[in-house]
Amino acid sequence: MAAEGKTIDALSQFELVPVLGPIGRAVGFSQSNAHMLLAVGLITLLFVYGMRHRALVPGRLQSAAEMLYEFVEGVVVGQVGHEGRRYFPFVFALFMFVLFGNMLGLLPYAFTYTSHIAVTFGLAFLVFVVTTVVALAIHGKKFFGYFFPEGAPLWLAPIIIPVEIVSYISRPVSLSIRLFANMVAGHVMLKVFATFIVLIGSLGAVGIFGAALPLAVNVALVGFEILVAFLQAYVFAILTSIYLHDAVHLH
Amino acid sequence: MIRLPFAQLWHAAALALLLSQAPAALAQHVTAPAPTGSVQTNAPLPGQQGESVAVQADSDRATAVREANRTAAEYEHAAREAADAGGMPQLDFANPLTIAQVIWLFVIFGLLVFLAAHYLLPPVAEVLETRRARIASDLDAARDARAQAEAAEAGQRDSTARARAEAQASIAAATQAAQADAAKRAEALAERLNAQITEAETRIGAARDAAMGALREAATDAAAALVQRLAGIEDKAAVDAAVSRELSARNMGAA
Predict the structure, then answer these.
(1) Mean of the per-residue pLDDT values for chain A?
(2) Which listed residue, A111, A154, A240, B176, has the most CB atoms within 10 A of its CB?
(3) Contact state of B101 with A119 under an 8 Å Cβ cutoff
(4) CB-based contact (8 Å) between B38 and chain A?
(5) pLDDT tens digits along A63-82
(6) Euclidean distance between the first and final Cα of chain B, in Å?
(7) Segments forming the whole domain that contains residue A106
(8) How far apart are CA B41 and CA B54, in angstroms?
(9) Considering its fold, how many domains does chain B have in total?
(10) Among A90, A138, A139, which would you mutate to test the B interface (most chain B Cβ atoms within 10 Å of its Cβ)?
(11) For residues B180 and B173, what is the distance between their CA atoms, to the nearest angstrom?
């Protein structure tokens, strides 16, 4: 698919294809959703199987599960404080879902659901709704004071309030585009260099040596993408925590 | 404070699912009134350039009807074609799978949040809490043990010091007693010796006096005899006086 007709086709990897035959087609269940389900399954497996002994001295899988737990817990409690503990499952699910989505996408033949703006925006929108609901539930009408900081001169209100509202509303946009753009850029680069390997490699004996360069680039890129996969999940989780902090404490 | 009930999240997700499917279903009914039979298009004949406007309108209608008749498979195909044409599949919102994907995302992510909150995270929290408690209690026990050891060591040091002090005291007492005893005995001995010395001196003095007395008598007798033999004078008193004088001149007078 990569080098059909000697052209670089870096985008077809993002195409949605229904799976599970006619049933999947009827309910619009694509390979993207199948990978989401796989990610949830793997996360569940890691925690259920890894924690099956509940050992005082953890084994490898239990260590991994505990490390992930404590990492996200540190992020949530560090940002929101101890009252943020109730939102921990939500942030944890976000972090794991994004992390596993990014990591699974790096496997050959796998689909990266976090490379779809609809998916990342769906998650970011969920974060937006949850933080807003939390803020309204805790602070009621006082929440709207968030858009006009106390002590600011009143005549600045016509400028400050629209700016604050725009910045508040742009949160889900930036949150979703950041993850989407990172994943798309990485996968397009991988695909482009992979295509180079095939194209240059088909030039004969010289080509085999020539193909070594894009291959080396791709090896480095995969390492880089693993870093990005983790980093973007972390960024998603910590920004969610920061928004939750704002919702709980109003600045 | 609020508690986010997961049941409500579920309901919201289910509602969103229903709502999102409604417009699609409606649209299908509205825009696909009669997908029966094939659509006749008036294909332009060669040379009929004058009717091009009407032909254009007809072909537009034909396109619209074809669009309405699309099946899911055709959508898929169209999406692939759009992607091949250079568009990003992610931005192809005409593809129903793009939106369906998000609905499924909410369902699957909701499932993950539910699982995480109820089945995945509590065991970890429990294990971590148990370990924290265990470590804390072990540390406490270690601290107690150390305190005990320190107390024992202090006690031991104490008793050692006490024993040493006692020993030193008894040594000092014994030494003192011995010294006092020795001094007393030495004193007694010296006293006895002094007494003996004094007695001996007295005896010596007496003996010397006696000897001196005897010497004077012998000297007087000898002198008187000499005087009588040589001069025929018998003056006992004069001889006595002369001997006395001579003896005292020689510093040997009667003691």
Answers:
(1) 89
(2) A240
(3) yes
(4) no
(5) 999 999 999 999 999 999 88
(6) 132
(7) 17-249
(8) 11
(9) 1
(10) A90
(11) 10
